[in-house]
Design goal:
This protein is an all-alpha fold and 146 residues long. Helix content is 81%, strand content 0%. It is elongated and about 65 Å long.
């Protein structure tokens, strides 16, 4: 178990760094957009929310790829595509079980699942913050118009 955590720790740190960068960029963009314009057209709000959603989704895919690279590096998979599929199933906590790693590295699956559920939670929190910002800007606009 200790070996698994030692192997997984650098991967989790890289993934956390990726997630933090995306969160910081999205929050800065959302906040700066609100402060600068104060008033935004409807489609700007739609584009903003879509961009946040797309960036967080791409970030999660990138993290799955990092985990998949680890699995290939450890010799668990000969092809990146199989490793990525297995990683995506773990990261999203689906747990199909159609592909199982060897007993030596099997514990990395639950570790990735725990990491993935936290990262999806962070993505959800970011999306919630973006939605709240849109609501705040639109409420302020309605109050100013009154």
């Amino acid at each position: 178990m200790h070996l698994h955590l030692l192997i997984a720790a650098p991967v989790m740190l890289v993934c956390l760094l990726l997630q933090c960068i995306v969160v910081a960029v999205c929050l800065r963009y959302v906040h700066v957009g609100s402060v600068r314009t104060g008033r935004r057209p409807f489609w700007t709000d739609v584009a903003l929310l879509a961009a946040v959603m797309l960036l967080t989704l791409l970030c999660n895919f990138a993290q799955m790829a990092v985990w998949a690279a680890l699995f290939v590096l450890l010799g668990e998979f000969g092809e990146f595509s199989a490793a990525f599929y297995h990683s995506a199933v773990n990261f999203a906590t689906l747990g199909y079980g159609d592909i199982v790693m060897s007993a030596r590295w099997r514990m990395l699956g639950p570790i990735e699942s725990a990491h993935g559920i936290l990262m999806f939670g962070l993505s959800t929190a970011l999306m919630t913050a973006a939605v709240l910002d849109v609501v705040k800007v639109n409420s302020a606009r309605r109050n100013d118009a009154s």
